[in-house]
Records
---
Amino acid sequence: MEAPPFSEELSKYPRPPAEDSSSGETTPVQTNYSRVELTGKHIYVYQVSVTNLDARTNDKVASTTSDRQVTDPQARSEIFIKAQAKFSSKRYVYFDGKEYAYSPRSLHKHWTSGEESREVTHVGGDSGLPCQFQVTLRALRKYESKELLRYCDGSDEVPDSYVQGFLFALDEIIRSCSKRQFLSTGGGRWLSSYRPVVTPWGFDVWWEYRLTMRAGRGALFVNIGAKAVPVISVGDLAELSRLFFEKKVAALQQQQQRRSNDGQPKGSVIDLKTWVASFEPAIRGLQVHVPGTTSIATIAKLSAQPASQLTTPGGGESLAAYYQRKFNLSIGDPTIPCAIMTSPDMLPVAVPLSLCRLPGEDRRQVQGVVAPWQHGDFVHASAVAPSHRHDVLAHGMRMVAKCGDAPDLKAFGIRISATLASVSARVLDPPRIVMQRGSGGKSEDVVGSGGSGSGCWEIGSGQRVVDSAQLRSWAVVVFGQPGGQQPALVRAFITQYVKVCVGLGIDVQQTEPPIKYATAWNDIARVIEEARQLAEKSSGERERRAQLVFCILPFNSVALYGEIKRVALTLVGVQTQCVQMSNVRAHNPRLLTSVALKMNVKLGGFTANVKENEGGGALGEEIPTMVISADVNHTTEAGGMSVAAVLSSTDLRGRRYAGTVLQHPQRMEYIENFDAIIRQSLRIFYRSTGGGVKPMRIIYYRDGVSDSQMQMVKQLELAAIYRGCRLIDPEYRPQVTVVLVRKRHHSRFFPLGDAAGAGNCLVGTSVAAEVVSPLVFSFYLLAHRSPFGVSKPAYYLVLHDDCGFGLEEIRRMTLNLSYMYPIVTRSVAMPAALYYAHRLTGKGRLQLSRAFNTLPHFTKKGKEDSGSAYLVPVHEAVRDTMYFM
């Protein structure tokens, strides 16, 4: 089919299909949405400016700009309240303290009059002198409620920008009225101690709420999200520091014991630099009471020296002597640093942590940052049962609904239901998972280990991967000194690893690979190249390149891991597999299986096939289909570049993929020269399927795109897909479907009826009613089972659909693709192709060895086989493999 002109067709979204009740029974699920009734007719938006007319007291009242604009939100709000009565004393108005004011009625006699100003006198600042200010309201926009309700009813005549602006205004109004019900900690954060989780690690888990207005099908909704936050539960910062490092010190002591057993030298348990770098972010910004003062000070940083080395300014008196002489206080442990404060009336010296107390009766504040070694404890503490999280959300919504009788919400005609909404859902049957049985290669279905709705299965005795790779030539590199028991541990690990591979049906022809120890890490390229040559020499097949370099790392090091990947993938051209020495000692069977499956995929094999069940949705030879996925990662490496990854399937079942890595200018979301990538992907597909097969359908899954960027995807990337097909053949017109995938949202679903309180919704639960977009073909799909906490569904929006998919077909295909991630024996949250795109952006970040302005750019004038589509270089020996696993 001919690509339609963009102005006519490509700018339109596919209409939402009706839920097909004949395709299966529906089941009710409860959401974290609540219905909103909007009876007010209008919302008027004004842009606010607050000007300081008294130039002599600019610095005494609030921070201002060069044109005398007051910038402090609190000062702006106080001044605006005084001016409000002069604009209209009988009309309610809400000011966000920043830029905009909202009112249910016009504050001007004539709405189109532009702007009006009022002068007010305000006393503020340290001087306490009266100052003159001018508050100016400029009419910005008038929103009509009937237009928003028309949009919810499916009218495409209401512009998206109008709807998004209206929802933003409602967000601000509802949040301002609701925040009084919660414990505000500043910065727009609302906390609640409802059903907190108490831990022994110096913090408790409280809940931070966030409200967002959403336009659903036929109704308005407010979505409530609850995020776990660590709240400090001890008032003494010295005690907090002990709890903060307790587990880290214990882990380091165990690590040093292992180093001693391996014959390696010991180091200090934890040095002062690490101490400061780890603990300072956790307490930065905390408000504490300082001895000798009646005020509250704010911690800015920690001292670079321990308390024993610090002296008072000027006099040079030791810190211990100063506090003993002036306050008769001991500074506590002299080996730890002190807190440096930002308050103007603080003590003229650093404050020992043992003297810092959190103010207030309960002495609780939000901890700034969770340390890496605290992260596991925090995640497990916050991953409460779904019924617990449901109660927290329901409590928050009840608190918000209490504001419905407040004068402010009544003035705007906003009423929020106190009950979480229930919607209908479909539970899709899982696909058939097929593996091999025994050495004869007979296929058989794998039985799920947790029921049909669990999304999990186990590789039982005698079950083998459906496609086995051959491991003929490989070597092991151990980074570290070969002392103590380490050589025996490494050899035992490799023996067990080979045994696991053979048990999975992977053809390991070299069961005893050579082992090389790398004691110097300043030349990783030489180490990897020598390991490659050692593998080829030991295998006796010099005409074949080494397939794998198995790397054992002494500890978790992003720098070492990144350099190994960069060298192997861009310079040497060999697959690598990295594990840490701690895992070598553990011999964890699950880890060994995961590493074996990952290696099998890198070398050309695959774990299991997915076959269609009665509902269909699986890919096959009947209609040749190519799956494409893309993601853009914005990073700080290489001068703040953006890394884009594009994956395309190379077989008819959508199992194997080839990837392209692109480096973009900073924060550029669209993918440059997408048509050249499509042309290259089509050629790889044609070659990999035996030559002669062109895809009749292209399914494009795109991640990381916001509402404001949806049209950009259609204008640039969809049009580029059509152009890329024409570059192959002017008459080639495959059907194209574009699906946008979102995982950063606050939507959650909970089972009702007989399944209520039993945990998460079943894998395969899909919601396509009420709480989805009223205009765009969209649905939620829960394709995985969360091991703990509440499972989070992915949100899919179909931006374009030449294939004419129905709701049932496209979500079954999406669910089936979520069962095809080959390194785990369970379904994942999104189609496997999107996980590959995430992994490839991560690998691409490791390959950014040059600044953007020195990289070769795309050129459409280049030769067809020049490889110009690979802006970030990948060695030709691994280019078309799944090296990103």
---
Amino acid sequence: MADSSPASFLTQANALLRKNLVFQKRNIWSNIRLITIPFFLCLLLLVVQMLFNTQFNDVHGQCGCKEKTCDLRYSTSEQAAFCAIPNPPQWTPMLQIPAPQYRVATTYPSHSSPATFLFTGNNQSLGKILMGNMYSDLSEFDGELANYVLGSSSFPAYTNYMDSAFISDIPIYNIQNECSPNSSFSILIHQSPIAFPKKVNCVQGLNLWRNSFSNVNNELFKGYRKGNPDEKINEFAAAFDFQNTNGNNLNVCVWYNSTYKNDTVVRPMALIRVPRLVNQASNAYLEFLKGSETKILFEYVKEMPKPETKLSLDIASLIGPLFFTWVILLLFPVILTTLVYEKQQRLRIMMKMQGLGDAPHWIVSYTYFLLISILYMLCFAIFGSVIGLNFFRLNDYSIQLVFFLICINLQISVAFLAAAMFSDVKTATVIAYIYVFGTGLLGIFLFQFFLEDPLFPRGWIIAMELYPGFSLYRGLYELSQSAFSGDYRGIDGMRWRDFENGMKEVTCIMLIEWLLLLVLAYYIDQITYSGKHPLFFLLKSSSKKKQHHFCQSQTSKVVIEMEKSDVCQEREKVEHHLLESTGDCAVLCNNLKKVYSGKDGNPQKLAVRGLSLALPQGECFGMLGPNGAGKTSFINMMTGIIKPSSGTAFVQGLDILTDMDRIYTTIGVCPQHDLLWEKLSGREHLLFYGRLKNLKGSVLTQAVEESLRSVNLFHGGIGDKQVGKYSGGMKRRLSVAISLIGSPKVVYMDEPSTGLDPASRKSLWDVVKRAKRKGAIILTTHSMEEAEILCDRIGIFVDGSLQCIGNPKELKSRYGGSYVLTMTTSEEHEKEVEQLVHNISMNAKKIYRTAGTQKFELPKQEVKIGEVFQAVEKAKTMFPVVAWGLADTTLEDVFIKVAQTS
């Protein structure tokens, strides 16, 4: 026996997950094509890397070769860096001196600005002595560069095989206490296999005392070049803190300039400028203790011997951010179109009307998309590692896992939020792919340019990263740069110790955005799909008892003098049920109204005008009316698709305004248009909706079999075919079966027999007759025969209001008190026919005429059937009668009469 209780959260989640997995199975080839895209792009990157290695690295990225000999003599300038250097040259140690335009100018001309050194300590007089001993007083070159304090404003290179201070056009400075007019001299730089002259200019070393460590630090910071490189900033060559230095102890702290803020390349080789500063301080202290003859000569610095190397540039990592952005974002159109498809086809509404709660839908749908995304990203990352892409191999896998996991979660949240903005799959698809490819192109040609520009404000970078596509691109850029640097230097890529760079910033932004957008998407969903008030989280739901009193007070004020007596009796019956609160009505509508606001200057549309209806269990109520009478609007209000403008209704004692989620577990709906998944079979539809109705195991299987048999979809394997292959009538029968599975207490059927052949219609009627024994049915139809056979009571709607109500016999008796006489003759005898009819009844009314055929209404109280027969037999002797007939009033006649007179 079926469980009559509502399906639990786990049951609903299980039903939805099973349906999604079956749907995904139907799209297996689409999924395979989707997964091949990252494989294809990864292979494309690998091919690009291989072409670069063979066409560039093998020609320009190795030491030149001639006659099987590889060294500097057989190399171009591009190839020289890759040759073996067994005996690196010896270079004189240098200081890092600011360029003239950045030095402390004070009262000096710009061309002779001194190189300023700050100093502090516990003993100012000793500090002055030591700073005075820092520089050489030699004004002429004596052949030994180690005796001079030399410096340059050139930046040191990554290696020291070729010192930039000696091989560049930037001058070398000799730092002295005082510069004489002829203190410059020339030297010959001789480093095999080259020799070249170099001029050495004198620059004064200016020593400035500061009272404390903090004063020195602050002044150094203020003098640091920031922003515009042409801005006049006072830079200092170095600073010394002699601390507690005395005649028995040397304790010195050295400040040095390691890089400039506008320099985009980190220069660890700047440390090569530091040893000379330490040597200066040591020699100054020795001179203080032992005199000027005692020195520690610092003759040269020298790089380690170097074997022959080969250039290995990871081009795949350099262009990877663009391709990887595309790969990850390609999931976005898939998720978005799935959500919009359910919205466009109104499948989400259909699932909700059949009992699927918001929580199971959100959790299962989100988890479902998350699992697909994780599988997609795992295939992507594993394949990239297998084929040897450094982006995946060198960077820490745990960092990649965290970053990609946050990325796909943010992407799913954006898709859920974007789905609320679209109602058409084609439009959503186009916009989604513009987002995918536009983000990648803007990232590489715009955003990356700003990232690498040191003058671009950091605040604007963060603002741009608030756009999810750019935050994704930034993270991929950081990982790519780490992989590129790691491959170039022969070290690992990004590790957690490196997470303090832009990667941490962008990960935090994406994490916060994920949570905020997910909450926002859920909020919009509750307003749109569930029809809740925009401030629903602040409002408290009213109790059912309170709502009953509200309805009672409202109905007591309703006075409609123009209503028919049967309609007034129905309204009084509703008021009685509200007062008694008996709960024996399956459906109770109380003054239900729906007004659609006017658009484009049109007036408001009154779709339903104060409908009151009491429907007991076991009754089938038929709603008849012309198109646009308000029948579908009424069903939409009863099923929660739209909200009533005023009034309310109760289903099984539950208010549609406050308890719609509970009502969904007790009703079944056959909508006017078939809401089905094209990829699922009829059986799979019934299994899904059966589980939502809490059917399980053998009970579920039996219910599905019976449903398929009842609507003639069982034989020939029709029930196992995909719905996309069904005819219109087969889809309609399946919709009816869905509405009835699980034996709901109340069933709404909106024109269920539309498009059915006579045999299928007859079979469908038998199904509805059996179903109404278990609950109440509200049925709309344009078939008078269907209404007369199925409905216990009928209500005729015209222009949104109920014009009459009763069983078919009552309506025909009340509105059809006449016979219909039809007679066909030649046209020249039409006047004689009219005269014959008026002889039968003076109040006869002609209602139809065409080509000799005429119809007349004869009041029953004035006419006897025998008299009609006698009159017709007499007429046949007077003129030829082709055909004639006398009929009682049909329901169709009642419908036409009510519709025309209302």
---
Amino acid sequence: MRKLLITFIWVPLLFSCVSQMNKKAATEVLPKSYTDYVDPFIGTSAHGHTFPGATVPFGMVQLSPDTGIEGWDWSSGYHSSDNSIMGFSHTHLSGTGGGDYGDILLMPTVGEIKTEAGSKENPDEGYRSRFEKVKEEASPGFYSVFLEDYGITAELTATTRVGVHQYHFPASDQAHIILDLKHGIGDSARETWFEVTSDNEIVGLRRSSGWARDQFVYFVAQFSKPFDSVQGTKSGVDLKETNKLDGDDVKAVVNYTTVEGEAITVKVAISAVSVEGARKNLEAEAKGFNFNAVKDQAKQTWNEKLSKIEVEGGDQVKKTIFYTALYHSMIAPNVFMDVDHQYRGMDHKIHKAEGFTHYTLFSLWDTFRATHPLFTLIAPEENNDFIKSMIVKYEQSGQLPVWELSANETGTMIGFHSAPVIADAINKGQGDFDKELAYKAMVAAAEDPRRGLNWFNEDGFIPVEKESNSVSKGVEYAFDMWVVAQVAKDLGKMDDYKKYSNRALNYKQLFDKETGFLRGKNMYGAWDEPFDPMAISLLGAGNYTEGNAWHYNFFAPQDINGLIDLHGGDDKFIDKIDQMFEQEAVNDNHMAHDVTGLIGQYAQGNEPSHHVIYLYNYAGQPWKTQSRIRQVMDEMYTSERDGLCGNEDCGQMSAWYVFSAMGFYPVNPADGQYAIGSPIFGKVTIHMDNGNDFTIIADHSSTKNEYIQSATLDGVNYEKTFITHQQLENGGVLAFNMGENKSNWGTNISSRPTSHAIPLEEVNSIVEKKDVVYRPYITNKSVLFKGSTEVTFKDVTPDVEIYYTLDGTTPTKSSIRFETEFSINQSTLVKAIAFDKKGESSKVSEFAFKKAFYNSGEEYPKLRINYEKNATYDAGVNGILNGDYASDNLRDGKWDGISGQNFEAVIDLGQKEDLHQVSIGFLENTSSWVFLPKEVEFFVSNDGENFTSVGSYKTEMLNDHPIIGIKRFSKEIKGRYKFVKVVATPFDALPVWHLGAGNNPWMFTDEIVIE
């Protein structure tokens, strides 16, 4: 691989900036400024969630304006719907669906000192300033805006670890720069302090809790002009001159007297390690106060990165969209170590990266699909360090990143998609890391029992009642298992290869041939009803993650040919994809913000659909891929501020466009194969790191000429509708002849890409052909009964024999064989097992029948509640005393959900009864803000007024997300009583590590059981 040359440019009293240039760029003047094609404002409107501020490729600093922090569309701190600015902070997320960061905010002002930002409705009440978008300017590494209320022009630029501000003040004897350490985007400051260390330097810390549950940002800020004075305030009161202040809401005000047009430059270095680390970063990357030197260096650095893909032909608009997408794809992950290689680890201890650059911000559910495969083309060395960073995070925390942010695992989204990133690099010969250790980390992820993997690994699917989003998780786990299998095979671990290869086929258990969809089933193998393929569910509820059955029906990138077979062959598979585009383009859940960019039920605005169009190639109709790809590129990507149809998601939306505009896409992002689409530029050259160039030529390409008529590779006729990564690495010219009409190019079976989870020649030796026998289930509506109840077993698996026990022992073929319904009249633990004709057995089913008091329409028992019902989570009038248990699914309609209040329920039995036990169930689903109560207490009474406690339970606040499940609290009762009361007290607020820290938690309660 071609190494990068590190060049240090030292400018006395100016700046030293680090430039990473390849050998060619180090000796030649770049032929053009690729940054001229980049518009950082694209995606700052609608739901793109991008920021327009200054950063360098994969930089630690993202210095950008904050216009709002109030919700989803302000995840990056900036939205084009606003007309006022709060200030300029140094860390920002690019295109995420949740907010955090916004650390170390500076805001220049003149006039009366104000230490609160104020509101958008009335900026005058705080230090906010109005601005006009015509007076904004942004380019890679640079941002500028005129602050109307103060007559100040603010300019921003950055190095890797230093943000540089330049403020042009009017003449004023009341000029100020506010340093707000409370400010953040969607998080809460928990520790803030500053100290004035010289007449032009302030140091300090902002420690916060939000999406990243415990984030440290130390800083050193140096000003080009000595202070007149520095004042400080804590909690917005008692502003006074000071050199030091600490608390959870600390702000500093730097005061100046300025002349007309005077420029004050501020350079702010940050560190997650210490003030000393920030100071080293400042000294290494920023000496002096020459703003333009940093700006020019940032532009040069971006030009070097953007030049990795050279586009010719096409109009200015398409080039702007393309290079802006390429720019957005290289904002994250972010450097997360100081210049001395020290960084804060997942254990929050300080470590030193030996021989690599340590990174953070791994939005892997998004970026495993196309962003990381793009890095293998344009940034393989950085991608190698991304993987090394993932591996050390595993060593420090015991798990590979899922969605990691500033040394905090957020647990956001699904799958364990570090695995395909690692496997892809190994497959492409870029695995410059400890493969055995990487494999150990992948296995740890595959065997982690949390997030439904315990069910997936044991039963081959995740029951809908045991885990939310069970279908999405199931199909994505199947893919991740396949990539673990590939690495096992590469390392010669053939037993593991067999095990994980078989797990890669588990997605098939979710395919319903009657409806033609991958859909949810319960633990007994019965399809979840009712089923509506258009119904969208959210993270934390329903069977799909931010989507519906249409969005996930085509996710088996490891086994596309197997998926085609499930649908009944090529024609039926193609027809199913066609139907997806022909459905009504609606989102039936207004809360599912991410389901956007709809063409029928194809959703370009969210990741699960991104590969679907390319699947036509696998079934022999590549012209449909070509046409639909052009439609998406033309309709869903523009050069306007609202030019992204959904969240940019740390580069994934952009990487999709970069690949598709070049003419190919990694459908399986770990097999080194790219499906061909429809290139839009006359010529694209990828400058590989090994020194080779791969060129894509699209003769006659135009808006109308979207179809490939023929192709050649290095002058030889090329009929395949895919190309491999190795072919790209080898260099060469892939030339297409484009036309207005569809053609037969690439339709032959030999031309198609193939995708088999297990190579056909290995199927007989690898596939474990074991019949699936599902657990028996009962036909009873509930396991709670009065008097007596009849029990009947059934099984989804045909022609099975069912055996059961009533004494709690494990049933075998020697137990009671079920022939017909039987009766029980006391609380009984019933266990059952099924055997098919071959003797294969199911797992054991358990049914804890309880003889209990509950309301089935009679007057007694009578329920009285002392809490306000929630309209969304309401189990009904007697829902928590109706003899029917709720499931693990918070949206099954059987839960009473309450927040910000105590739970209290009194049950009147109508007369004194001999009582033995009382219990109540609570759901634990912390990612959906549902926590167990802080305390549960049980009482009895005979007059309904004077209650006696029979015991209580207290729980501890969690420090991490547990497995979703139901916990029942119970207490023994001895005696005859008429009334029973249950009281549950919630925790005061969500914990500091939680995304919703500080907000009220929810308690979800169901069936009170009195025996």
